[in-house]
Design a protein that fits this description.
It is built from 30 helices and 20 strands. With 768 residues, the protein is α/β, with parallel strands linked by helices. Among the domains are: 2-63, no CATH class; 525-765. Strand 17 and strand 18 (652-662) form a beta hairpin. Helix 1 runs antiparallel to helix 3, helix 4 (77-85) packs across helix 23 and helix 12 (227-237) crosses helix 14 (253-271). The protein is globular and about 105 Å long.
């Protein structure tokens, strides 16, 4: 308290002067002036007395100790780990691993998002019934503290730095080919465990052996992995008796929940991090679901980060595999926190999913004494923030980011954070910004007035890493500068006038009501993958290996299983409408390619998917071919007959009529019910014949092309899953991106038809 009074005393002395010397500091907000003073020092060319006053204020802002200040940070992988202590995967981290929040605020704890499903984490989900581990491992490494290592193992600074470097080399090592033994791993990653303290060395060796010896973990070695993820899994499974198999654990999640907690506590202590340094926002496995403004919905964080739908994100939802649990210790940490920070990261797959976990947002709101701060992202992210929902024609602003949080966090942002820490573009060289723009990288601009109108306090400062810019030509948050800025805001908080401005309801988008209504209970990923594998074991794969010695039926089977796994939106019952996959030699391919270049189809005659042989060698082409045929298979044997008849007038051919005759419903094998099939055929522009409800027609003018209903189903099916797989359909759907006008009514009709197609796919075909 005495230190706070001294800061106020120094401030009052400066303010008492006739022309406030504070006007010599850039920016307008007092927080920004304090940060500028701390980061850049006293203003130049001022009198000795004023310089002394500035120097004293700066000293009080920088020298106050904050070791006992309790900090909780929420976020995902890279953004969170970077501000906690730097990204351990970056070249150079091993030489300077001790910086960031963890060193200035040693009582920092992280609450990590668990919806990641890409890379090694996604591979682990196939075998292990845990939450996503990758971001947890990532943040855990960044949380290693110098003082903790020294205290645990009696190390010098040089020795502690070497230990952190060895741990980083080991935990960040990746392999594509199954290693034979722990010794081979150590040789390949060049991590010398001999330089580690004996306790640390013994435990890491024990975890390495467990990866190979524990039958619940060892099957994962056949997949490409980050070794650190497997070490985290080993630390978890060492808490569980080996008699408890994966099958038992899949039906007893509470055992894994407790083991995950104990395993992370053990790892944090062993590696030299704060107690409870890193915990998942929930131990219940979860997945992300994203709805775009054009009505398309996709599932999976990794897929959302690579999707280029061309439309802004409308909503984000999180589905869980069962009752959602939160460790009581997380609520305790939030309740006792002096500072609560929302870390930068992927907008829709970092902070938002965390606050879909019941109870977490409420816990933050109930803490009325903490500094609550959001750290803004620096750059537009393709597929997420490359378009504003307010105005898709312009790029993303900070106010757009805040609207996205308001719209997608149940209950909105009220009480979650007050200040927003933003990058000052004035501090970034113009030449760098121009170079980035040429590369398609656009900063997220601070629109200060609108952010203030939204009820937040923007704090603009130079929080980017000048070293990273010089060494790698990138602009990213500097962990040391961000930590200093947060410390300055916290210490100076006694000086700021008034409270945060009142939130203006007119500028607050409606947030999700009753989020539970939009949450699905989904199958545990490891269980779903087993079901995919078991389903394809019953499907015969016919392939002539003489045509391509590099492939065989089992390799094709495994590849297609991975394709289905990748597209989480494919319901398992979509796999029930074909019994075989037959690879047809090019010379025997009889399909007419006059109107399309689709080299696959579903044959209702023998209930098989047929793919031209040359599509097998390229996984992307195989993916397209399989998904189109899979979509076609949903119609099954719906057609009793198809016929094309010409239309003549006075001997002049005018066009053709395509006739489609349906089988009676009780004789069909079709995914779509009768009403749904009728709706689809109408959307495919087939006209029902009034006197015969099993007869549909389509008029085709002149010699124009025509996409029959079966092929169209396959194309829109593949397009919905990933629009780049069906460029023909993407071209047609691009009409939805054009500004509409009432001058051309037909265009509006086409737009409405495309909207109905998407709604049909979302609500009927891909409805879980």
């Amino acid at each position: 308290m005495q230190e706070n009074n001294r800061v106020q005393e120094s401030l009052q002395q400066l303010l008492a002067r006739q022309l406030s010397p504070l006007d010599l500091l850039p920016h307008t907000d007092l927080r920004e002036k304090f940060i500028d003073l701390v980061l850049n020092g006293e203003p130049a060319n001022i009198d000795h007395e004023t310089t002394a006053l500035f120097h004293e204020l700066r000293r009080k802002l920088t020298e106050k100790r904050v070791e006992d200040v309790r900090v909780v940070v929420f976020g995902g992988g890279t953004g969170l780990s970077n501000i906690i202590g730097g990204d351990s995967r970056r070249k150079g981290w091993q030489q300077a691993p001790f910086s960031g929040l963890k060193e200035i605020f040693p009582r920092t704890r992280s609450v990590v998002c668990v919806t990641d499903d890409g890379g090694s984490t996604g591979e682990l989900l196939k075998d292990i019934p845990l939450v996503a581990i990758g971001d947890i491992r990532h943040v855990l490494l960044s949380s290693i503290q110098l003082e903790k290592l020294q205290k645990h193992y009696s190390l010098s600074v040089v020795e502690a730095t070497a230990v952190a470097g060895t741990i980083s080399a080991l935990f960040n090592y990746r392999f594509d080919k199954k290693p034979d033994n722990p010794e081979q791993i150590l040789e390949n990653c060049r991590a010398d465990l001999g330089m580690l303290p004996s306790f640390l060395q013994e435990n890491i060796n024990s975890l390495l052996r467990q990866i190979f010896d524990d039958p619940r973990i060892s099957p994962a070695l056949k997949r490409p992995h980050c070794l650190g993820n497997l070490l985290v899994v080993a630390a978890v499974f060492r808490q569980i008796a080996r008699s408890l198999t994966i099958e038992i654990l899949e039906t007893s999640p509470e055992i894994l929940h407790q083991a995950l907690f104990e395993g992370l506590i053990f790892l944090a202590d062993m590696l030299g991090a704060e107690e409870r340094a890193v915990l998942p926002c929930t131990p219940t496995p979860a997945r992300l679901r994203v709805l775009y403004t054009n009505g398309v919905q996709i599932t999976g964080e990794n897929k959302s980060s690579t999707a280029l739908r061309g439309f802004p994100v409308e909503r984000v939802y999180v589905d869980f595999t069962g009752p959602v649990r939160v460790y009581p210790e997380i609520f305790e940490d939030i309740r006792n926190a002096d500072i609560l920070i929302m870390a930068p990261g992927s907008l829709y797959s970092s902070i938002i999913p965390i606050f879909h976990v019941p109870g977490l947002a409420e816990a933050v709101r109930e803490n009325n004494h903490a500094l609550k701060l959001l750290i803004s992202n620096l750059w537009v992210q393709a597929g997420e923030t490359d378009r504003s929902i307010e105005d898709p024609e312009r790029k993303f602003h900070v106010s757009d980011m805040l609207r996205a949080y308001e719209r997608n966090i149940p209950g909105g942002t009220e009480g979650l954070f007050h200040e927003v820490l933003c990058l000052s573009l004035k501090d970034v060289p113009a030449s760098i910004l121009q170079q980035y723009e040429v590369e398609g990288k656009i900063p997220i601009y601070l629109d200060r007035n609108i952010v203030c109108e939204q009820g937040f306090i923007p704090i603009e400062c130079g929080i980017y890493s000048k070293a990273a810019l010089a060494e790698r030509g990138v602009i990213q948050h500097d962990p040391e500068i961000v930590a200093q800025a947060i410390k300055t805001i916290f210490i100076g908080s006694v000086c700021y006038p008034g409270k945060p401005p009142e939130r203006q309801k007119k500028n607050r988008p409606v947030s999700i009501p009753d989020a539970e209504k939009f949450t699905n209970t989904v199958l545990l990923p490891s269980l779903k993958f087993k079901k995919i594998i078991n389903r394809f074991k019953k499907i015969s794969i016919e392939f002539d290996r003489r045509k391509n010695a590099a492939f065989d039926s089992e390799k094709i089977r495994a590849t297609i299983c991975d394709i289905v796994w990748k597209h989480q939106d494919i319901p398992l019952n979509h796999l029930d409408y074909f019994t075989a996959i037959r690879c047809v030699p090019d010379s025997q391919w009889r399909r007419d390619q006059k109107w399309d270049n689709v080299f696959s189809f579903f044959d209702p005659g023998d209930c098989s998917i047929k793919i031209r042989h040359d599509q097998i060698a390229d996984e992307r082409r195989l993916e397209t071919a399989f998904l189109i045929a899979l979509g076609e298979s949903l119609l099954g044997n719906y057609a009793a007959g198809k016929e094309m008849k010409g239309i003549d007038a006075d001997g002049i051919p005018l066009g053709k009529v395509y006739h489609l005759f349906l089988l009676p419903e009780d004789k069909r094998t079709c995914f779509l019910k009768a009403d749904d099939l009728h709706e689809y055929l109408v959307l495919a522009r087939m006209l029902p014949v009034e006197v015969d409800d099993l007869h549909y027609t389509r008029l085709i003018n002149g010699d124009e092309g025509f996409t029959p209903p079966g092929l169209l189903m396959g194309l829109i099916y593949a397009w919905y899953l990933e629009n780049r797989l069906a460029s023909h359909i993407e071209y047609k759907m691009s009409l939805m991106q054009i500004n509409q006008t009432d001058l051309i009514p037909e265009q509006l009709k086409m737009l409405k038809r495309r909207e109905r197609v998407i709604s049909f796919l979302r609500n009927v075909v891909f409805c879980p």
